[in-house]
Design goal:
With 240 residues, the chain is of the alpha/beta class. It contains eight helices and eleven strands. It has helices at 28-45, 61-64, 70-94, 117-125, 143-153, 187-192, 200-209, 224-228, and strands at residues 9-14, 48-53, 101-104, 113-114, 130-133, 158-163, 168-169, 181-182, 184-186, 213-217, 235-239. The protein is globular.
């Protein structure tokens, strides 16, 4: 396993599905559950934490783009992430992180601070959790691209991608039972093998910035303290 220094600042990608419960697209108990986990992790590790939220529980712009103008569909998807961002920020404030900030590159000043790189860094320097919603505020860019870009701009040491599977495989393990698991893989191999962990734009950004990516099961969120001390056995590490 690769030997990385203990990260002091990380960025966590949370899919929108984490905020639904199967019956409801938006589940406030799920927001509370995630917020409680994150507050405990921050208190235990002291890590500086930025979080990028998805919106797939509410609307998937990429899927809708087959039926409507793709730029409008992407805008609807970005607004969906804003709803999750407001919900997570509120839950974090209520569960022990009162200084949590919600920031977005998509201007919605009544609901969130505008994303300004230096201001976001200042929040992290001051020990505040920041929730980043709205993607990059532009159509054609996924939340994968957003997390890669923000990781670079905010000088994060690692991207933590909470996924629906426990590691990266060479095929969908839900379909191919003999799918091979990777404990460590390079950006280039992940891209060439088309493993679908992140989109090609996001991989290109990470290749340039050399920020490692750790993919793990979203159900293992409580393992983050061990992960942050260098135990990457519960997922796949993608590095240069």
């Amino acid at each position: 396993m690769a030997n990385l220094e203990k990260p002091t600042r990380v960025i966590l990608k949370l899919s929108g599905e984490r905020f639904s419960d199967g019956d409801q697209h938006i589940s406030f108990p799920q927001f509370d559950k995630v917020a409680n986990q994150l507050v405990k992790i921050k208190n235990k590790t002291g890590v500086e934490l930025a979080i990028v939220v998805g919106g797939g529980n509410i609307f998937r712009g990429r899927q809708a783009a087959a039926e409507v103008d793709h730029t409008e569909a992407d805008t609807m998807g970005m607004l969906a992430t804003m709803i999750n961002g407001v919900g997570l920020r509120e839950a974090l404030v209520r569960n022990g992180e009162p200084e949590t900030r919600l920031m977005t590159s998509l201007p919605v000043p009544a609901a969130a601070e505008p994303y300004i790189r230096l201001k976001a860094r200042h929040h992290l320097d001051s020990g505040r959790v920041i929730v980043l919603a709205g993607g990059l505020g532009l159509p054609n860019f996924s939340t994968d691209s957003a997390v890669a870009q923000y990781a670079d701009e905010l000088r994060c040491k690692i991207i933590l991608k909470a996924s629906t599977v426990d590691e990266v495989y060479d095929a969908d393990p839900n379909i191919v039972k003999s799918a091979k698991r990777f404990s460590v893989i390079t950006y280039r191999d992940a891209l060439v093998k088309e493993l679908g962990v992140m989109d090609s734009t996001a991989f290109a950004m990470c290749t340039r910035s050399e920020i490692p990516i750790f993919v793990f099961n979203i159900e293992d969120l409580d393992k983050l303290p061990e992960i942050l001390t260098g135990d990457y056995s519960s997922g796949t590490l993608i590095t240069k």
